[in-house]
Specification:
mainly alpha, single chain, extended, 2 strands, 106 residues
């Protein structure tokens, strides 16, 4: 059931993107809709990341030992200061795994 759901959602996303991003199909949105779509990526990313950062199963992660939270804050600060995405990802992963190791061992 899970694989069917994943493949169905992948097909829906692919079809939507191919229709809207194809150079052969000319679709013009109203200006208010284009402004709304500019906020869709940050909103979607927030909706995906929030439960991962703050919840573990059904329980809320405790803040003093939450490596996810500290790594997310570090990633936001790093993204604000630097533009290179690969550098940000590598440094954020390094900080996350370091914090995860240090906070779980104590």
């Amino acid at each position: 059931m899970t694989w069917i759901m994943i493949f169905t959602l992948a097909a829906i996303v692919f079809l939507n993107r191919s229709i809207f991003l194809s150079p052969n199909i000319k679709i013009r949105f109203p200006s208010f809709m284009e402004r709304m779509l500019k906020y869709s990526a940050p909103c979607l990313l927030t909706a995906i990341c929030f439960p991962v950062i703050f919840f573990e199963g059904e329980q809320i992660r405790s803040l003093p030992t939450n490596a996810y939270f500290y790594a997310a804050i570090f990633c936001i600060i790093l993204a604000y200061c630097r533009v290179k995405i690969i550098y940000n990802v590598m440094m954020s992963l390094l900080i996350f795994y370091s914090l995860n190791f240090l906070l779980s061992s104590s």
